[in-house]
């Protein structure tokens, strides 16, 4: 009887272990970030990477799009947008303060909307 119960328990553990799905915690996003040049690119990407959970951040100068991969269990897109706004760059949702914008180098100051 003990062997049957032990066998059933092992079978249950084996089945339940295989039934669990591995969830992908990483998500991809594209967000609009205003900027002009390579200095902007470095600053924007550095600000994005300063947020814990950001796996990849690549800003395109031509399209003003930030391609972002992040772990949604550690941070949100809004966290990244706030970090970018703190260094003087407006995003589609979070605007930089005037004082942060004015700290940008003259070549980095873009036309604000």
Sequence-ordered SSE layout with sheet pairings:
Layout: H1 2-19, E1 26-32, H2 38-49, E2 54-59, E3 65-71, H3 77-86, H4 98-102
Antiparallel strand pairs: 1-3, 2-3
Give a quick rundown of the structure.
The chain is an alpha+beta fold. Helices cover 40% and strands 18% of the residues. It is built from four helices and three strands, in the order H-E-H-E-E-H-H.
What this model shows, in words?
- The protein is an alpha+beta fold.
- It is 40% helix and 18% strand.
- The protein has four helices and three strands; from the N terminus they run αβαββαα.
- The chain has helices at residues 2-19, 38-49, 77-86, 98-102; strands at residues 26-32, 54-59, 65-71.
- A three-stranded antiparallel beta sheet has the order 1-3-2, with helices on one face.
- Helix 2 packs across helix 3.
- The model has no long low-confidence stretch (mean pLDDT 89).
User: Structural class of the helices, strands and pairings?
Assistant: alpha+beta
What can be said about the biggest beta sheet?
3 strands, antiparallel
Topology pattern, helix = H, strand = E:
HEHEEHH
Quaternary structure classification: single chain
Distance between the termini: 77 Å
Fraction in beta strands:
15-25%
Residue windows where pLDDT falls under 50 for at least 5 positions: none
**What is the mean pLDDT?**
89
Label the overall shape. rod-shaped
Which percent bin holds the helix content?
Answer: 25-40%
In total, how many beta strands?
Answer: 3
**Number of helical elements:** 4
Strands ordered across the widest β-sheet:
1-3-2
Alpha-carbon Rg, integer: 23 Å
């Amino acid at each position: 009887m003990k062997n049957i119960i032990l066998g059933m328990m092992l079978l249950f553990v084996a089945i339940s272990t295989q039934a669990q799905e591995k969830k992908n915690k990483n998500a991809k996003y594209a967000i609009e970030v205003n900027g002009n040049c390579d200095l902007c690119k470095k600053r924007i990407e550095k600000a994005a990477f300063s947020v814990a959970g950001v796996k990849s951040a690549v800003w395109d100068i031509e399209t003003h799009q930030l391609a972002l991969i992040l772990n949604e269990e550690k941070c949100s897109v809004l966290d990244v947008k706030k970090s970018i706004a703190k260094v003087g760059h407006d995003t589609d949702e979070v605007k930089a303060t005037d004082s942060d914008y004015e700290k940008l180098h003259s070549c980095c100051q873009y036309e604000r909307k």
